[in-house]
Design goal:
This protein is of the alpha/beta class. It has 2 domains: about 230 residues, Spore Coat Polysaccharide Biosynthesis Protein SpsA, Chain A (Alpha-Beta Complex), CATH 3.90.550.10; about 70 residues. The chain is built from 10 helices and 8 strands. It has an 8-stranded mixed β-sheet with strand order 7-5-6-4-1-2-3-8, with helices on both faces. Strand 1, helix 1 and strand 2 form a beta-alpha-beta unit. Bound molecules: uridine-5'-diphosphate and magnesium ion (MG).
Length: about 325
Amino acid sequence: MNLSIVIPLLNEEESLKELHDWIVGVMQAKGYTYEILFIDDGSSDGSWDMISELAAENTSVKGIRFQRNFGKSQALHAGFKAAQGDVIITMDADLQDNPEEIPELYRMIKDEGYDLVSGWKKKRFDSVIFKNIPSKLFNWAARQTSGVRLNDFNCGLKAYRKNVVKTIEVSGEMHRYIPVLAKSAGFSNIGEKVVRHQARKYGKTKFGMERFINGFLDLITIWFVSKFGKQPMHLFGALGVLMFIIGFGFALYLGIDKLFIHPTGRLITDRPQFFIALTAMIIGTQLFLAGFLGEILIRSKKDKAHYTIEKTLND
Ligand code: UDP
Ligand code: MG
């Protein structure tokens, strides 16, 4: 199979038929063998019914329905695991991404040796204040922290060589950083292509103001992961141990001072420095425990899916 088109969606019933017909038109014109994977990320509208209808008339349409909303990253992850094509395309379901870009993306992977080609919405049709300006800042920060030189990290339209999607694990809210994950997995041939971008035709964006907070947290995570390797929690644990040792050393010094050098006054109530040492020990212990907790979480969550699938179609 040439292509798997992975489409994560949440409440996009109005767009799905139009999007399906548009994609199928492009696939037939080019003679590609393909599958369209709709991942319904817990929609509460008629999206799943629409996907069922499309799957009934076109066996190349496959559906995965999540038990509830797990987020775009998890939907992409589920699509990546199910995809069978040589090249995997991801795109949004809201008709903002143009299926006519697919053949060129496919060619860049097949003939130019790219592992990943990311779309670049050079001309956007979104709100300037809420999207364009924040996204410029965000992309700049993402470039600085990750070392991946993309102009547009957040574009839903991307193409991947099969190995890439089978290797990487898209955890948490990391969909904006899939190129960074790919790069750290050793897929360094990452390209970017300017793509056409349309205004949202139906409904409205599924990401509100929380996107800034999530984006910021993701950014810190990326920075940590690229700086401290796969186990950023080691840093907190180590800081905690260091702080404890300093506090302990200081307390020990005060104790020895009281016992042998200046035996006047009481150890605790007459030596305020003792409280500083004690505080350092307590904070050190807490930091160490936080790091330890992080380690446990990282280890126990490994290789576990972060979503539950309710049902599938044509799989
Ligand atoms: N989406 C999803 N799960 C979510 C939120 C969004 O699968 O929890 C899908 C959404 O239906 C769309 C794509 O992710 O297909 C991009 O979302 P949206 O268009 O709202 O983002 P924007 O274009 O505003 O960045
Ligand atoms: Mg959109």
